[in-house]
Amino acid sequence: MDMKVKRFNRTDRVIGTTCIYWLQGRCNRNPCRFLHSETPSIRATASYRDDTASYHNARKRCSVSPTPESAKRVSWRKTENDMSVPKHTTKKVLSRNLEDDRERTQVLPQKPSTSICKYWMNDNCVHGDKCRNLHSWSYGDGFSILAKLQGHKKLATGIALPNGSDKLYSGSADGTLRSWDCHTGQCANLMNLGAEATSLINEGPWIFVGLPNTVKAWNIQTASQFTLDGPKGRVLAMTVGNDTLLAGAEDGVISAWRGSSEPNSPFELVASLCGHTKSVVCLTVGAHNKMLYSGSKDQSIKVWDLDTFQCKMTLNAHADEVTSLLCWDNFLLSGSSDRTIKVWYKTMEETLEVAYSHDVENGVVALSGMTDPKDKPIVFCSTRDNSVRLYELPSFAERGRLFAKQEVGLIDVAPGGLFFTGDRTGMLTVWKWLEEPKAAASS
């Protein structure tokens, strides 16, 4: 009787049988016709397909030695292969997904851009109306550009609108003082100061210009001119409070002048406020014109009594240079290079604490504020990305944005709904609130 021994071909499979030698860790067959796993795989329990490609794929999965790392890889591959979409349906699934994506894209509205087109700024954008970025120097409702005053070669560091004058005065880091006709927007006069003007303010008929180691004072009614000595280094900030002219300089000292009866000079140096360890870069007056607030590169804010010229407290909440200060009602707002605007309030103990801190994308350069035609308080905040954000208080909701070719270092306001911005190209832009907000564009 002949006995025929059945031989297993390489493509034969034993479904559900585990290799006993593999369990003992000494199977040396590759490939092995028995399972190298304690339980059948999902594919092994499926209907058998005797094709070489499937068999070789199974061999690759089972031939990996069961080390911890390789076990993770086997598990990942197994999950990927077992749960993948069959080849004959892949194209249909992809096509359906693409169609769904297109439908979602058509349904969802496109978010309007809040960035100005840099190519449009230089008059060379090729996309025209189809450009995804703004072809405008601003976005937002309720304001518009009234005029652009061109002439300064560097940053305009301050503006002045003296009482009884139809001229706007501007000082610049280019070392000039310009007067502009408020009716035509043309430059009416140019004065060479001999040094960069780092600050400029006015009080009544007086214009004060901060220069290195001195302050120049002009009376536009009498055409008289005076020099006020005392500061050391550039005068970076000035303000007037309690009938006192105050100027902060690079040496960290604030000089104070009051009126004098001397015929040679109508101003007398009455105090030097010392306390900051680095340059004083911003000043503001609040609390019924009796308190002075100073911000410095030493990251602190100091509060001074203008009757005694004594420092009442020091505020240390910023992590970088305090670049701008703004008093509004009973609140103090401070902007810093640490990318925050902090709102301070007075406690029952007569100290100042932070009530709210608003984060901005870039370091704060300057702050200013006014109310719109509907009496809503608006804060202007210029940042190091060459833009000015308009925030509505107290929510800090963004009302709009102004753009410039370079960093905006000057923001100032004036009666009649006017506000001004000056960037480092020397451009001085005059903006005006509209009586009614602009009508929304029809879709």
Structural overview:
The protein has 443 residues and is mainly beta. 13% of the residues lie in helices and 41% in strands. The protein is built from five helices and 29 strands.
Sum this structure up briefly:
This protein is mainly beta. It has helices spanning about 20-25, 50-60, 70-85, 85-105, 120, and strands at about 140, 145-150, 155-160, 165-170, 175-180, 185-190, 200-205, 205-210, 215-220, 225-230, 235-240, 245-250, 255-260, 265-275, 280-285, 290-295, 300-305, 310-315, 320-330, 330-335, 340-345, 350-360, 365-370, 375-385, 385-390, 395-405, 410-415, 420-425, 430-435.
Features:
5 helices; four-stranded antiparallel beta sheet; five-stranded antiparallel beta sheet; disordered C terminus; elongated; mainly beta; disordered N terminus; 443 residues
